[in-house]
């Protein structure tokens, strides 16, 4: 069963959400003031080579925008949408393409001809074509959209109503930006309510007002205290912060975050097996592939990720990579395998949106140079 728990006791801007698959924690989201999805009236601070711009969005670090749609100059007010939060000394990444998300569609402005994208998870060609034609029928002039996976179960009326709602919301935001001061937040996107509700068999929330607001049939109000504790989420979150993760066979996987990348190492550990070394390596690596894909999502790892699987014959890597790619595709933000080096290291990248689960701050006394 796919179950979503939403802890909203601390307010809308401090919610926590946990996605459980048959009781096992698969994804955790903690709203710690993330600006991803927010539309902000910003101030252009600097422009480089007419291709890159730095925008003041109210943060101590200027946001970075790549290739503006329109000609801009320093001092201009411009509505932008945050694509990824500021991390360390790097400012947030923003875009002047404003995309408004609904349950079924993501709407944005684009001069004709209109574009309609369809989620890659809808693989039936006839269904994709049907949905594309249906969306074009409802799209207002000057708008394009991407249809989400949930659209395959939506009625014409539901899709039509949502596109009307999203286009009206988009117009209101752009209209507000024309008279608003800067920097100022014009629209705040709620990742939990916009991204995590779709496809769930059951949704449990400990805030009665939010339950009534969502008005969804499979949402339940949780009256008891400690929602996450009742479903063993707190223990699983704590476990996800550990450096080592043990595999069923007795091997283990180590996760290390460096300044430049995430390094993941697969170890045979206690597993010796009764077969030859190649079979042992393949078994450990296959279990590790399932584990690593889940942990990448759970820990929200991003950027460059390097994995050192156990050495094994070249032909076994094909089977391993096939399994690994299949597991990665289950992620909301799928990681992309970039290459396999001659040394057998698997290099992949995953788009960064928010801080990882186990983010750590440098020690104020030794700046991270000390050892225990």
Please describe what this structure looks like:
It is globular, with a radius of gyration of 23 Å. The strands form four sheets. Strands 16-17-18-19-21-20 form a six-stranded mixed sheet, covered by helices on one side. The protein has a five-stranded mixed sheet with strand order 3-2-1-14-15, with helices on both faces. Strands 4-5-6-8-7 form a five-stranded mixed beta barrel. Helix content is 26%, strand content 29%. By secondary structure, it is of the alpha+beta class. The protein has helices spanning 125-138, 156-177, 191-195, 208-214, 227-230, 233-240, 277-299, 314-328, and strands at residues 2-7, 16-21, 24-30, 39-48, 52-56, 63-66, 77-84, 93-95, 99-101, 105-109, 116-118, 143-147, 184-187, 202-205, 219-221, 244-246, 252-257, 262-267, 303-308, 336-340, 345-350. Helix 4 (208-214) links the parallel strand 14 and strand 15. It has eight helices and 21 strands. It has four domains: 2-31 and 192-233, no CATH class; 39-95, OB fold (Dihydrolipoamide Acetyltransferase, E2P) (Beta Barrel), CATH 2.40.50.140; 99-189, Ribosomal Protein S5, domain 2, CATH 3.30.230.10; 242-350, Aminopeptidase (3-Layer(aba) Sandwich). Helix 7 (277-299) runs parallel beside helix 8.
């Amino acid at each position: 069963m796919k179950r979503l728990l939403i802890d909203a006791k601390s307010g809308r801007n401090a919610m926590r959400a946990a996605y459980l698959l048959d009781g096992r924690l698969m994804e955790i989201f903690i709203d710690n003031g993330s600006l991803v999805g927010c539309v902000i009236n910003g101030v252009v601070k600097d422009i480089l080579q007419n291709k890159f711009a730095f925008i003041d969005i109210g943060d101590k670090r200027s946001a970075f925008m790549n290739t503006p749609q329109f000609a801009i100059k320093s001092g201009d007010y411009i509505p932008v949408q945050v694509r990824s939060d500021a991390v360390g000394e790097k400012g947030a990444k923003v875009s002047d393409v404003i995309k408004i998300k609904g349950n079924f569609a993501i709407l944005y402005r684009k001069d004709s001809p209109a574009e309609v994208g369809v989620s890659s998870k809808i693989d039936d060609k006839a269904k994709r074509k049907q949905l594309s034609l249906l969306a074009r029928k409802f799209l207002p002039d000057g708008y394009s959209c991407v249809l989400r996976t949930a659209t395959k179960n939506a009625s014409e009326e539901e899709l039509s109503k949502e596109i009307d709602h999203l286009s009206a919301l988009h117009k209101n935001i752009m209209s507000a930006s024309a008279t608003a001061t800067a920097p100022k937040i014009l629209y705040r996107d709620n990742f939990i309510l916009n991204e995590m509700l779709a496809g769930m068999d059951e949704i449990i929330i400990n805030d009665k007002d939010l339950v009534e607001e969502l008005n969804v049939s499979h949402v339940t109000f949780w009256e008891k205290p400690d929602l996450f504790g009742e479903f063993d989420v707190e223990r699983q979150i704590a476990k996800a912060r550990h450096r080592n993760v043990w595999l069923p066979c007795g091997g283990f996987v180590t996760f290390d975050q460096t300044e430049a990348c995430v390094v993941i190492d697969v170890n045979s550990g206690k597993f010796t097996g009764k077969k030859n070394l190649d079979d042992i390596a393949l078994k450990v690596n296959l279990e590790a592939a399932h584990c690593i894909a889940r942990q990448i999502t759970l820990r929200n790892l991003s950027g460059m990720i390097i994995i050192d699987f156990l050495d094994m014959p070249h032909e076994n890597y094909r089977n391993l990579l096939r399994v690994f790619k299949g597991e990665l595709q289950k992620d909301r933000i799928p990681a992309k395998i970039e290459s396999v080096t001659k040394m057998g290291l698997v290099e992949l990248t995953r788009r960064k949106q928010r801080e990882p689960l186990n983010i750590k701050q440098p020690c104020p006394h030794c700046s991270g140079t000390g050892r225990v």
